Amino acid sequence: MQRPTSEWTFTHMNRLFPSTTVGRGVSYTRSGRLTMPLEVEYQLDGRTYDLGHLHRRTYSTGFVVLHKGNLVHESYPGLFAGPGVRFQLFSLTKSITSILVGIALDNRMIIDVSDMVTQYLPNLAGTAYDGVSVEHLLDMTSGAGTVESWTDPESDIARFTDAIFTGGSLEAVVRSVARFARPGAAFNYSTIDTQVLGWVLEAASGTSLAEFASRWLWSRIGADHDAYYWLSRESGRSAIGGGSFNATVRDLARIGQLMSHGGAIGGQRIVSRAWVERSWRDVEPHLMAGALGRQQPDHYGYANHWWTVTGGGRHTFAALGIYGQYLYVDPDADIVIAKCSAWPVEEDPHLDRETVVALNAVVRHLEGMDAFAAARSG
């Protein structure tokens, strides 16, 4: 997990863990490869940088930009990267799980976000997840578990990760977490919450996470390549709904396009517009930007397993993963940016700040090009 070895690790997870395919289906759309440069500059701490600096300074491995559904730029600075390479997306997976839950709700497999977790997972009765709703899980307000710390070996996430890697029982870890707050009262970022959400989806649909994702999402968006989940080593082999999805950067950008276009792509309605809009509305005070706690940057709020991004009254939102994975969606300008990275550490507020500044600069640049073209045609 350390550089430079991590660049290989993050593109070969199926060589390290058991995995299961998320099939693209029979119908798919090949993306053409573009070599056109994107001449964008951004300002940071009084200095000017371009995208080349961004990739070097923030360890980019893959970078794709869509504008109005068109592929306008891609580059692969990573050592093992390319258009057909599938990248480990870490917690960006959580936002894909959210889309799957929205699809299950649209199809009445899950009846309502107010449904209790124990309606679908009675084995969690009497645990910290008793009395927690699907909505609480989606907004990370379950009140279950400790602060997610990668440096504390006794933290819930450390015990959960250890169980994944060593074949321990994920359910035993989930059952052991303590309640720290009343459900719905406080935000606490939790991969374990998403694992429970994935189990709810599997119980409601009667299929595995990978089978559901393939049938209802991946086979319908025109994906270039199959995706996959790597699995835990326990005998039951669980997909990690909060962190084990792998896909090409181009196909990741298609997910962003789906969200930018209100839940439809290629003429197909995949998930309801209302579900997409729920993903950028951080309406609860404790979910708004600046209110998530000291662990989270002030420019992020949270809604529906997506991060809302402050600035200019826009509806920008993002899916994020540790080590610098970004799916940045600006539906107002219909711009999607997918960036995979191999940061030296799991989380770095300075690298995150620079990335957000640069991605906003890409949006402004493309909007400026649109305005220039409109002025000329007018």
Automatic annotation (TrEMBL):
It comes from Dactylosporangium maewongense. PANTHER family: BETA-LACTAMASE-RELATED, BLL8153 PROTEIN. InterPro entries: Beta-lactam-related (IPR001466), Beta-lactam/transpept-like (IPR012338), Diverse_Enzym_Activities (IPR050789). This is Serine hydrolase. One of its GO terms (molecular function) is hydrolase activity. Keywords: Hydrolase. Transmembrane segments: none annotated. Residues 61-357 form the Beta-lactamase-related domain.
